[in-house]
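Structure catalogue
Derive tokens from sequence
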Amino acid sequence: MTTAEAVILAIVEGLTEFLPVSSTGHLILTEAFLHVQSTIFSKVFIINIQFGAILSVIVLYWRRFFQSFDFYFKLLVAFIPAAVLGLLLNDYIDSLLSSVLTVAISLVVGGFALILTDVIFKKQIADSANDPDEVEVREFNEFGMEEKKMVLKKLEISYLQAFIIGCWQCLAMVPGVSRSASAIIGGLTQKLNMKRAAEFSFFLAVPTISAAAAYKLLKSFSYIKGSDISMLLLGNVVSFIVGVIAIKFFIGLITRYGLKFFGYYRIILGVIILVLWALGYHLEIAD
């Protein structure tokens, strides 16, 4: 893997990690288009650079993320389904990480799912526009005088809701499905509005992606050379910077318009790949 290839892959990761278009699917497609040779390090790289992307969540949402220990326990409960299935199906999931055809089919199916989501949860999308990040509270100061101040609105979610959203997230183990889309749809089924469902999907990415990246790095650590470390650091820095930009763009877009535009994009991209496949141009990751 060259430095240019690493930067391009990191940009794709930062742009797509939190968008409902599947970062893994886009990384697989990018590898195929760039003819990146499939090695143990390349597989570690596309998983590990997600660290940079999730750091962007913590930086942007640090006040909401560090809200309470109770919230961390709920994130843990939501993370458990993916942790269990990830360990059980690790080898099978790895085998799909080079399947461009699987990504194409998932993109199309997922695109229709996003369009349908906008129809089913139309009210919850509309509610997002009227859901402020801060609320006014009244408190008495040390002199007994009432004061008004703005405080951060907490993300209200139960343990059962968190677990169900975590189960939805497991759909993303198939490349091309999208972890964020699965978690957002799961949140909508649990009565969260679009804005809060998206935010919880961001927060859930922290334990989910951290565990996956750490496990992959630990499992393949002996194959990583000293020169590879600088490539991993570069990839994480780039994905962090791009991730910050992507999150701000994404929240603003779905609050106003929902997920349908991402659905159209997925369908168009998936169909293009399937047409190329039918014409005999098979995109594959080089061994």
